[in-house]
Amino acid sequence: GCITDTEQKVQTYNIIWVNTQPSDYEYIETQLSCQITPYQGTEYDNVTISTNEKDDVMHLHISATSPTCRYPDLYEFAYRDQKLTRTGYLLEAIPEKTRQNAIGIAMENPDIASSLSGDVGNPTVRRILPETSEKFYKAKTCLSVTWEKILTSALIDVDTLSVVKMWNGEG
Questions:
Q1: With 60 as the cut, is the pLDDT of residue 127 above it?
Q2: Per its UniProt entry, which superkingdom is the organism in (predicted)?
Q3: Share of residues in the chain with pLDDT > 90 (%)
Q4: Which of 2, 64, 77, 112 is the most exposed place for a label (fewest CB within 10 A)?
Q5: β-pair type (46-54, 14-17)
Q6: How confident is the model at residue 170 (pLDDT cuts 50, 70, 90)?
Q7: How far apart, in whole angstroms, are the C-alpha atoms of residue 104 and residue 106?
Q8: 115, exposed or middle or buried, with CB in 10 Å at 0-12, 13-18, 19+?
Q9: Nearest to residue 143, comparing CAs of 158, 161, 160?
Q10: What domains can be seen in the chain, in order of their start residue?
């Protein structure tokens, strides 16, 4: 977590540096703790950080796991001049019950249901952060359910339990 009013770290996870820790690793860890957030109601137990340098920029690859989730959350950051900037994410650390609920909501959508014939494979369920979901819907955390085999995806509002946007096909 972030530094609280009492100046105490409220971080509850182990941090593992795969490469040599940079000299200002504590500062980086503090910055990271404000920018990586597990799914509501879950906690990370391990955060693994690997780094590589390119053109005076340190690139951080973060894998954060939760004991209650099958898949990790993955984050990418660039670090330069003591500034940490998130450059990408793939967030799949979602409790199984929530994953199944999201898949169920997506499958209730008539357009999605009609495209789910034959072997469509298992869908992925990912958390979409507000700054991404606002491009398609609202600035709030949503879930995405995607059947990659048939290029079908649904954006789920977890508060209204509904499909708020759907993509089908290559377009």
A1: yes
A2: Archaea
A3: 78
A4: 2
A5: parallel
A6: low
A7: 5
A8: middle
A9: 158
A10: 14-91 (3.30.160), 96-168 (no CATH)
